Amino acid sequence: MTELGPVAWPPEPIRTGRLVLRGSEARDRAAFIELFASPEVHTYLGGPRPREELEREMPGAPGRRPGSFVVDLGGAMIGQILLRRATEHRRPAAAGKADLGYLFLPRAWGFGYAAEACAAALEWFDGILPGEPVVLTTQTANARSLRLAAKLGFTEVERFHAWDAEQWLGLRSPATPSA
Ligand SMILES: CC(C)(COP(=O)(O)OP(=O)(O)OC[C@H]1O[C@@H](n2cnc3c(N)ncnc32)[C@H](O)[C@@H]1OP(=O)(O)O)[C@@H](O)C(=O)NCCC(=O)NCCS
Question: Which of 10, 21, 41, 120 is 20 to 30 Å apart from 111, CA to CA?
């Protein structure tokens, strides 16, 4: 994965009904560690990273790069959304395309926050790179993620086997300008 391309970062914070999407700050460090060390979050992502390693190696303000949004609820980070470029994706249908990823703390699951935040991030994306499709890869066993992908308008391109599991590759076609 590489960065999206020449985009101004961080953007002005994006406000939705309940959330704010913003660039990461030093105060998010503890939440990033919780996110990356959580076995529940990484059930379908190849397993968590050891907390001690994260404490040791994570920079003061992690995730400070174009396309990496902190999702903030009431002043505290509840998740991360990533829009990157799938430069070396193993499936030709996805290689080189913009790629959506999302990770939320388990206590924030089940409230529609991920859907609300991802829809706003995709709207931001449509504004800066109009007409570009977005891809998304998730394990077929990851039912929550598949439901979210469908809600966001991703449709199946193909399934494939990688990282010891069956994967789902979805595509969101660019919005067609209304007449
Ligand atoms: C994938 C993930 C982001 C989905 O989170 P989520 O909270 O289930 O997703 P949504 O924001 O779409 O919320 C949907 C749920 O909120 C409920 N909900 C409650 N209030 C709601 C509201 N006001 N609006 C919308 N939905 C609401 C929905 O009914 C739905 O519940 P259900 O799952 O019991 O049917 C989360 O499980 C996660 O972070 N997983 C670990 C990381 C991961 O696997 N990422 C995928 C690879 S990129």
Answer: 10
